[in-house]
Amino acid sequence: MASTPAHPDGAVHPGAPTDAPRWDYSPAPETVPVTIPERTQLLIGGKFVDPASRKRFATVNPATEAVLSQVAEAGEADVAAAVAAARKALKPWSKLRAGERAKYLYRIARRIQERARELAVLETMDGGKPIKESRDVDVPLAAQHFFYHAGWCDKLRYAVPGGGDPQPVGVCGQIIPWNFPLLMAAWKLAPALACGNTVVLKPAETTSLTAMRLAEILQECDLPPGVVNVVTGAGATGRAIVEHKGIDKLAFTGSTEVGKLIARACAARGTRLTLELGGKSPNIIFADAAIDQAIEGIVQSIWFNQGHVCCAGSRLFVEESVLPEVLAKLDIRMRSLRVGDPLDKNTDVGAINSRQQLATIAKYIEEGGREGCTVCQPGAQALPTKGFWCRPTYMTGVQPSHVVAREEIFGPVLAVMSFRTPEEAIQRANNTPYGLAAGIWTEKGSKVFDVARRLQAGVVWCNTYNQFDATSPFGGFKESGFGREGGRHGLAAYLAD
Ligand code: NAP
Ligand code: MG
Fold first, then answer.
1. pLDDT tens by residue, 250-301
2. Do 80 and 104 have their domain in common?
3. What distance in angstroms lies between residue 34's CA and the mean position of ligand 2's atoms?
4. Over 50: is that where the pLDDT of 92 sits?
5. Lowest CB count within 10 Å: 47, 294, 336, 489, which one?
6. For residue 274, with 0-12 CB atoms within 10 Å meaning exposed, 13-18 middle and 19 or more buried, which class applies?
C-alpha cells in the first residue's frame, strides 16, 4: 500500500483512499498542482470504500476532454449501507451538545479555506467554470455556508416560531447538480448538520471530484462516522436514494423533470421534500436605469458560469426606447469577453459542462433560428479545438411564444425582448411556468418596490444580479420548486415540525 498522499498544502489526509495511484497535474503556472486520484471511492460510515459492484465511470475535463479520474458508481447496496450508517449516526450526532456540533462546522469551514486553491482548481478542471469564479465565488461561499450555519447550532430555538427545543428531521438524502458542485454540497450539508441531521449526499455524474475532496475534509475534521456519507454515481444512484425507505427527508436541486419524479415518490411515502428546480428568469431594464451598469448586469446574469445557473437572467426585457443603445453597448462589451481555458485567470467564460449539455444548447440555438430569431455572437474568437464550447449568444426578434423564450436552455444564451410600460414588463416577466429569480434595473426607488412586489420570483435583485449569500433565503415559486435554502428560512426544512 502506498503511503498516505501528501497534498499541495502539506497536510496529511488520514481518511483519504491510500491505495489508488495518483498523479500530479500542473495545469498552469499560476495555479497550484492538484493531486487527482486515478480512482475515487465512496464515503460510507466514516470509511472510504469501493462500490460493491466495483463499477466506475470516467469524469472528464470538459475543456480538454482528458479523463481526470474513474469515479465510483454506487448501487443500491452501497446506498443502503450509506443510509444505515446515517441512521446509526443520527442519535449521537443529534444529541451532541449544540456548541460541540458547531465546532465541527467551524472546523470544516476553516479547512475549506485552507484548501481553497486546490478546491478551486479541481472544481474548474472537473466542471469547466472559469478559475476566477471557482476561486472568488464557489469556494469562499462554500466556506461561508459552514461558518454561517455553525453560528446557528446553539441558536436553533430562535429559528422556529414558538421556540422550544427544535429536533432534527432525521436521515436526509441530498441530490445535487453539476453547475455548482462544491457550493451545492456545502449549501445542502451545512444546514442539515447544524440542525442535527445526518446525510447521504449524491453529487452529479460529471462533477464528483470536489464533493469527494470535501469528503476528505470531513474526515480530516474527524466528523463522527456516518454523519455524512457521499455516494457518487449517475441517475440510478439518485433513484436508489429517493426510493430508500430509510430516508426521512429529501433535498433535490436539478431539472424540473427529475424533480417531478421525486415529488411523486415522496408524496407516495410522505417523505419531506424541498425542490430547487429550473428557471427562466426575467432581467428587466427600464429606460431610466444606469445603462452601463445594466450591461454589466446582463453579463453577470447570463454568462456567469456559462449560463449554467438555475436563476440565470435568461430572458432580457428592455424598455423599447433604450433597446438600440443597450444592444449596441452589449455588442461592444461582448467583444471583450474572453472565452477559453478555464484555468486562465483572465477567462470570463469557460467550457460547457458536458458534451450532452452542449448538444442541448446547440439544439436551442438552432431552434431559435428556425423560429425566426436573429442569433448574435459578437466578438467571435477562435475556440479551442478540443472540449465543449459555446460562444456567449443573444437572440433578438424573440416572441414570448418561442421555445427559446419559454424553456430553460441552461447555457450562455440570452433571449432579448422589449416592453413599453411597467405593466407590460411585469405581465411578460411573469408569463412563465417558473418563478425562481428576477432582476430590475432602474434609478427610481418607487418603481423598484412596485415591480418587485408584483414579480412572481423567489429572489428579486435590484441593480445587480446573481449575488448569493448564506444569510439570504433562496428558492422558487411555481415550477421552480418549493422550500427555501439559506438564511433562517432554510433551517425550517431541516427541523421537525
Ligand atoms: P438532473 O438530471 O435533474 O440532475 C440533477 C441530479 O439528479 C444529478 O445528481 C442527477 O444525477 C440526479 N438524477 C438524475 N436522475 C435522477 C432520478 N431519476 N432520481 C434521482 N436523482 C436523479 O439534471 P441534468 O440532466 O444534469 O440537467 C438537465 C437540465 O436540468 C439542465 O439542462 C437544466 O435545465 C436543469 N438543471 C437545473 C439545475 C438547477 O440548479 N436548478 C441544475 C442542473 C440542471 P446525474 O447527474 O448523475 O445524472
Ligand atoms: Mg467532469
1. 999 999 899 999 999 999 999 999 999 999 999 999 999 999 999 999 999 9
2. yes
3. 15
4. yes
5. 336
6. buried
pLDDT band at residue 23 using 50, 70 and 90 as cut-offs: very low
The CATH number that applies at residue 224 is 3.40.605.10
Q: What grid cell was written down for 30?
A: 499560476
Strand-pair category, 437-441 with 228-230: unpaired
Q: What is the dihedral of CA 442, 444, 449, 451, to 10 degrees?
A: -50
CA distance 336 to 358: 23
Domain span holding position 323: 282-469
For residue 6, pLDDT beyond 60? no
Task: Write down the pLDDT at residue 380.
Answer: 72
**How many domains does the chain divide into?**
2
Residue of 60, 206, 242, 258 best suited for mutating to test ligand 1, as the one with most atoms within 8 Å of CB:
258
- Tell me, what's the pLDDT at 381? 79
- Which ligand 1 atom is at minimum distance from the Cα of 203? 9
Cell of 339: 472565452
**How far does the centroid of ligand 2 lie from the alpha carbon of residue 58, in Å?**
8
Same domain? 431 vs 369: yes
What is the pLDDT, as a whole number, of residue 18?
40
Shared-domain flag, residues 300 and 434: yes
Nearest CA to ligand 1 atom 43: 254
Q: Over the stretch 116-155, which tens digit does the pLDDT of each residue have?
A: 999 999 999 999 999 999 999 999 999 999 999 999 999 9
Higher pLDDT, 5 or 83: 83
Confirm whether 1 is domain-assigned.
no
Pocket residues: Cβ below 6 A from ligand 1: 175-179, 202, 204-205, 234-235, 238-239, 242, 253-255, 258, 261-262, 276-278, 310, 360, 408, 410
pLDDT at 36: 95
**Ligand 1 centroid – CA 259 distance (Å):** 8
Instruction: Count the neighbouring beta carbons within 10 Å of the beta carbon of residue 427.
Output: 13
Give residue 175 CA to ligand 1 midpoint distance, Å. Answer: 9
- Nearest ligand, CA of residue 481? 1
Atom from ligand 1 closest to the CA of residue 206:
46
For residue 165, what pLDDT is reported?
A: 84
3-class secondary-structure state, position 264: helix
Report the C-alpha gap between 204 and 189 in whole angstroms: 15
Q: Which residues surround ligand 2, an ion (CB under 5 A)?
A: 59, 126, 206
Candidates 31, 60, 59, 62; CA nearest to 383 is 62
> Which helix (H) or strand (E) segment is 283 a member of?
strand 282-285
Query: Can you state the angle between helices 181-194 and 139-152, rounded to 10 degrees?
Result: 0
As a whole number of angstroms, the distance between CA 455 and CA 332 comes to: 30
**What 3-state class would DSSP assign to 457?**
coil
CA-nearest residue for atom 44, ligand 1, is 254
CA 290 to ligand 2 center in whole angstroms: 39
